[in-house]
Amino acid sequence: MSSASKLNPDDLISINYRPPETSWPSTPVDFRPGTWSYSGAAKNLSYLGLPNPRAWQPSDQDWKLPENWQDIILTGMKDRLDKYRSFRLFMDICVRCGACADKCHFYMGSGDPKNMPVLRGELLRSVYRRYFTTAGKLFGKLVGARDLTEDVLKEWFYYFHQCTECRRCSVFCPYGIDQAEITMLGRELLNLVGCNINWVIEPAANCFRTGNHLGIQPGGIKDMLEFIADDIEDRTGVRVNVPLNKKGADILFVAPSGDFFADPGTYTCMGYMMLFHEIGLNYTFSTYASEGGNFGLFTSHEMVKRLNAKIYAEAKRLGVKWIIGGECGHMWRVINQYMDTMNGPADFLSEPVSPVTGTRFENARATKMVHIAEFTADLIKQGKIRLDPRRNDHLRVTFHDSCNPARAMGLLEEPRYIINNVCNNFQEMAEDTIREKTLCCGAGAGLGNEENFEMRMRGGMPRAMAVKKVVESHGVNRLACICAIDRATLTSLMDFWVPQVKVMGVHELLANALIMTGEKERTTDLRGESLSI
Q1: If we measure between CA atoms, which residue out of 130, 313, 103, 349 comes closest to residue 208?
Q2: pLDDT tens, 398-428?
C-alpha cells in the first residue's frame, strides 16, 4: 500500500510546532516513509556524466560514498565560494533574525524547525564556518561550527530536498538572502558524491536523450499533437495545423512536455494551438526542443546551462526569428534570471515583435523569448481576438501565482488580465498568499513524486487552505495557474485537501472563450462539460 493511500487530511491537519527536546545539531534525521524521495538511478547518473553511480536508497545505513567524500565536498564548497560571491555573502550576513522562519510552507505544514529557512541555511552555514572561517577553525561549536560527518550529509539530503526553491522566504529577508540559491548549492555539493533524487535526475537525463522530461520520442510528440488537434476539431469544428520542425517559421514555440501528455495540461495545449491558428501565427513546434522545463535548476548550475542551451540550439537550426514559451514555471526562472550570464544573449535571433499587434517586447531584448501570457494579454489589449467570457460562466475561478513566473519574473498582471477578459467569475485568494507572497504548490524542484506524498501534502497545505477559504466564501470550483508542474501537483493537492476544486491552465480558460472563425456552435468546454450553468 502506498503512503498516499494511507493518509487522509485528518492525519496532517494537527501540527506540533514545539521544538524537539534535543538541540538542532543533535536531532537526527528520521527517514520516515512519505517524507523523502528515491535516490537517482545509476543509469541516469551515468548518462549525465555525474559521479558515483550506484544502487542505494536514502533509508540505507550505508550510502556507498566515495572514500574521500569529505574532501570532495569541501573542495567543491571552496570552488563555489570562490566562484559565486553571493554564496559567501549568504553564508556570512545572516543574523538569524527569524523574519523568514514562518514563511516556508514546509515549516508551516510540518512544524519541523529545520524547515525554517534560517535553520535550513544553517545546515550548510555551520559547515562553512568550521572549514572556511577563522572563528570556526579556532572555536568550533562555540561559534556554531560543526564537522562535516555522514549524519550532517544525510541531514543536507533530507532537508535540501524539502525545499522547492520557491524563494518565498527571500521576499521577507531584510538582507535579501536567497535561500533557493543555498538549496541549489547544497544540492550541487551532494551531486559531487552522487547523492541526488531520481525525480530530478531522470527527467534531466531524458531531456538530453529525447528532448523532453518524459523521454518521448519525436514520433510520440507528433502523434500526441495530432490527437490534440482531433479533440479541438471535435469540440469546435475547426481543424488546426500542427507545424513540426518547420524551418523558416517566424516563431519557435516551446511548451512543457506535460502539456502534450497529461491532463489537465493537454487542455492548455489545446488553448495554445487554437489561439495560434486563429491569429494565423507562423510558428513551429520542435520534436527535439520538446521541453520548456529545466530540471537543471534542481540539480546544478552547470546542468541549468546545458539544458537551456538546447532551446536556443534548435532555434538556430530552424532559423526562426524569436521564441514564445508556454505556461511553465522553472523555464521562466532560468530564462529570466540565468540565461544572459550562463548562455549569453541570443544575438542570432531578432528582438521579439508581435506579428499581429506590432508590440515590441523590450523585456525580451536579450533572451528573445516571450511568455505566452505576455503575448496573449497583448492580443486582448489590442482587440485582435474575439472572446465570449459567458462560455466560462459555469466556472468560478481563483488564480495561483506560480512561484517562478511570479517571484522570479514579476509576471503578476498579465495572467489576471487574461482571466478577467475571458471569465466573469474570478475571485482572488487572501492578499498574503498571492503575487510576490504566493504560496507554493509544495511539490516543485523535483519533489512531486509518489514516495514523497506526505511531505507534498504538508508543504502544499497552506496553499490548499487559501483555496478552501475562497471555496467557502465564493463557491470557487477552479484553480487556474501558468505552470505545468503546478497543474500536475496542484491536482493531487486539491484532490487531497479541497476535492471540489479542479485545476486548469489560463490558456484553457482562454480557449473556452475564444471565438474561432468557422467554428460550430459550442455547447461544451474543452473538457466536454456543458456550458449551461
Answers
A1: 313
A2: 999 999 999 989 999 999 999 999 999 999 9
List alpha helices for 84-178, DSSP H.
Answer: 85-93, 105-110, 117-132, 134-139, 150-160, 168-172
Label each residue of 161-191 as H, E or C. Answer: CCCCCCCHHHHHCCCCCCHHHHHHHHHHHHH
CA distances from 512 to 267, 268, 270, 280 (A): 10, 10, 10, 18
Say which residue the cell 510528440 belongs to.
221
Provide the 8-state DSSP code for 438.
P
Show the DSSP H helices in 319-441 as ranges: 330-333, 339-342, 372-381, 403, 413-422
Q: Look up residue 363 and give its three cell numbers.
A: 523585456
Asked if 284 and 204 touch (Cβ cutoff 8 Å), the reply is: no
Which of 116, 139, 120, 86 lies closest to 301 in space, CA to CA? 86
For 95, phi and psi rounded to 5 degrees?
Answer: -100, 5
| pLDDT tens, residue by residue, 431-489 | 999 999 999 999 999 999 999 999 999 999 999 999 999 999 999 999 999 999 999 99
pLDDT digits (tens, 9 = 90+) for 374-389: 999 999 999 999 999 9
| Dihedral sign of CA atoms 377, 381, 387, 393 in order | positive
Residue 478 Cα to chain centre, angstroms = 20
Rounded to 5°, angle at Cα 532 from 528 and 533 = 115
Q: What is the pTM of this model?
A: 0.95
Grouping H, G, I as helix, E, B as strand and the rest as coil, residue 481 is strand
Dist. CA 156–CA 123, nearest whole Å = 7
